[in-house]
């Protein structure tokens, strides 16, 4: 079992029996932050259907943007396209929203359950090119496990 597969197994164990969405997302972000090297922000933006925007959810890291319009920045773009976005150099992403000037690369994974957007998992790193295909695949599996645990 790879280190990151272990991470997904730890998530499943950690969340078993807990049904509170906020508690589960909070522990998931803490697990990511303490387990992954070279990460300076790990957390969630949750989809607000009424306002048609992403709203800051549980996270670990410095203060963050609280509202992101769909289609804006990496998170908003990932949410609209419902596709994983890996940004090797945030300075090269048109429309990048800089919440933390230390961020150099970003990975956003849309969270979709029963064909409905729940939100996004957002990870920032203080180094460029942090998120390769292997870690992206592992965090996609992590996200799928998380979605299974959310009511």
UniProtKB/TrEMBL annotation:
InterPro entries: GAF (IPR003018), GAF-like_dom_sf (IPR029016), Phosphatase_reg/MetRdx (IPR051330). Belongs to the free Met sulfoxide reductase family. This is GAF domain-containing protein. It comes from Limosilactobacillus walteri. Signal peptide: none annotated. Pfam families: GAF_2 (PF13185). Residues 31-143 form the GAF domain. PANTHER family: FREE METHIONINE-R-SULFOXIDE REDUCTASE, GAF/PUTATIVE CYTOSKELETAL PROTEIN.
